[in-house]
């Protein structure tokens, strides 16, 4: 297995990406290709005294900044690290790509170069969430903001395969994020998606209210990219706000300040449980190749985990499994349009 | 001022509603009418040894259960407590109605009997959220699940007036819940709503990412009823899950268990800061009368606060202010359709 890594992406420069790659190689029998400007990458490898020949460099002269318009990448940045790294997957020179850079640019690179899996209409970013019962996946969290019911249904299929792979469950419970449990609840789009999912062979458990996202009642949570993205970011913001409010309360009284000594341990462990770095990147599902999107703020550990996951997804032939399921769904006349 | 109270609504029976009404009268120069089955209400008042003549009973023979279809209310439950209480507002016998019963039934009662404020297309439930800087309002959180851009714009106008009233700010900051700060980010509906809001006289601060909801960067957060409802319930679920995860961590070690003694105070104060009961109900804005929707689990304190707020909204002539702003917006040619 070979994984291409966008070395120029991420908010913290080269170091966490190079270090994460080195850490991954300690756990992995694979080749990693750092894609980006050769001189600074080589300098970083020298600094870290790295000699393992399984880590190579593929030069790419351009970079894509975080604020740049993704649309520009396909036209003006064809020698950028993310474009070149994705091209290696297209050309068969790599089995997957990992990037902590501009998310839009990563999506555009994958969409234009890898294309879609046959039959899949739109891509979906599949994030992981900690729940009271373990881990769940949610898709889409930002790739496709305007969805149709049929696309939501396809997200369910892709989430099913990814959930199976990730959670090790034979038949993951798929829920549709909505505003009430009854099938009559929802907006026009989710009501139609409910019908398609119910008639599918998926283990569909029905509508899922917002309250149930973190309870762990579902393994796979289906929603459009607009709702998913807002949901994820509200969760991040609320978790931060709650920690700050709790700390304010703790610090506001002498007894509270005393508790600080004791609560630091539990708070740190909670932080670890809800830390995205523990999870590593989120795959862009639906494109015809493995593309892992990492948080811009990714640590070396997050990069390492994303590389391990990309390798596992490639080895597990996730793309083939999704392609098979989608082909079957297109043969099943659950929807007159889909027959 | 006279406020009609749906005495038969809520998950905890009559007691919190009657007690909340009694508490409200201690702080309020107003008349309250408990609407519902006379015998049990009178028995409850006797039990609590209440004699103040400002609290009266209006008999209504029917009740609406929490699980009942709201659509039935208008047809088969015209002598239900919520229908009769809302009718009192319509007939001028009360200045506002408060209910902790079936939310859908409360909306249907208001929609059919009070009608809409002239020019307002759809109603919005306006919830309050605690933020790091104080309080914000969010609308819609569940009345209108399929929205147009123009309806979102009208929610901005209604939120502006309610935010002014509630937060005491001359010109509340209005933000549009979306997936990025730039005006090019969002789905088709929010991009069009962005344009309408930017060209309006509102203090529009642009798109608001999910992360910013609890930071307090905006006073009024505009979204459709589907997104708002999911957002609110995800927040409730995550707050619960975080408390549970923290408690598990605290209880998992001896040092942690020791901290329990010290952290109880701060946790209780945090709970109070984020407790919906402190806020009292959420108004159904857009209908032509004051209608306050309370959580089914409302405590006496939550009911009291909702009554105080209903009285304040009626006194502040919120309906007239919204009507004036909407009329002005219809005269301003920000949108060819609206000219």
Count of individual helical segments of chain A: 12
Our Rg estimate of chain A from Cα atoms comes to 21 Å
Structural class of the secondary elements of chain A?
Answer: alpha/beta
- Molecular shape of chain A: globular
Strand order of the biggest β-sheet of chain A: 3-2-1-4-11-10-5-6-9-7-8
Q: What's the helix-strand series of chain A? A: EHEHEHHEHEEHEHEEHHHEEHH
Question: Biggest interface and its residues per chain?
Answer: A-B, 59 and 59 residues
CATH class of the largest domain in chain A equals Alpha Beta
Helical proportion of chain A, percent range: 40-55%
GO molecular function, one term (chains A, B): phosphate:acyl-[acyl carrier protein] acyltransferase activity
InterPro entries (chains A, B): FA_synthesis, Phospholipid_synth_PlsX-like
EC number (chains A, B): 2.3.1.274
Subcellular location (chains A, B): Cytoplasm
Keywords summarizing the entry:
12 helices; alpha/beta; 2 domains; 339 residues; eleven-stranded mixed sheet; Isopropylmalate Dehydrogenase; acyltransferase (chains A, B); phospholipid metabolism (chains A, B); homodimer
Characterization of this structure:
Two copies of one chain form a homodimer. With 339 residues, the first copy, chain A, is of the alpha/beta class. Chain A has two domains: 1-120 and 286-317, Isopropylmalate Dehydrogenase; 122-280, Isopropylmalate Dehydrogenase. The first copy, chain A, is 48% helix and 17% strand. Chain A contains twelve helices and eleven strands. Chain A has an eleven-stranded mixed sheet with strand order 3-2-1-4-11-10-5-6-9-7-8, with helices on both faces. The two termini of chain A are 37 Å apart. At the A-B interface, α8 and α9 of A face α8 and α9 of B.
